[in-house]
Fold this sequence. Notes:
Elements: H1 16-45, H2 69-79, H3 84-95, H4 101-113, H5 119-131, H6 142-192, H7 199-205
Amino acid sequence: MKTDPSPFRAAAPLPPSRLLPLLSLLSLLLLLSACGTQHGVLTQTHYGAPLAVAPLPIKVEPVALPDEVMPLLVYHQSLRKMTQGELLKELSGLLQQQRTPKVTLQTGMILMLTRGGGDLARAQGLFDGVAASNESGTQGVRAFAQLLSSHCAEARRLYDQADRLSTQLKETTRKTEQLSDTVEALKAIERGLPVRPANGANGASTPGAR
């Protein structure tokens, strides 16, 4: 009797009667596995959206705008110490510079102190232009320009009132002088009239007259 030299022998084919149950069992396992996977997917789709995590608040310090008003106030104080000639010279220098909000306000400040006719109205117009401007360089000086414009308007009102009072005073003085001249003229006429004799003197001069 011969022995097979190979350590493994080929398995004998299963008969159809045993192969059919195995195939059925394998199909069942595959179906269960597919159902389990589908069930897992469906379960995941029912999960709610992840909660949003709010970021930690970060404290941001406000950025301070550059102070542009204080130098203008200092400039205004220096203008008040100048003579009219110095003011006009300073004004001439500003008019030759590029027109910026700062130069415009400085020009208006000088016009507030000069004595030319209509200078206050010109200054107020310059201030109103800066206060109503939307340029990038006017944010820090708009309120200051509005304040200067209000000051000009009040000064113009007071000057107009002073002019009216001065006109009324001159008119009153003129009328008073006219009345005084009229009174002096009447006194002079009265002094030139003849003196009337008294009644007693007339009676004494014609005694017993019929």
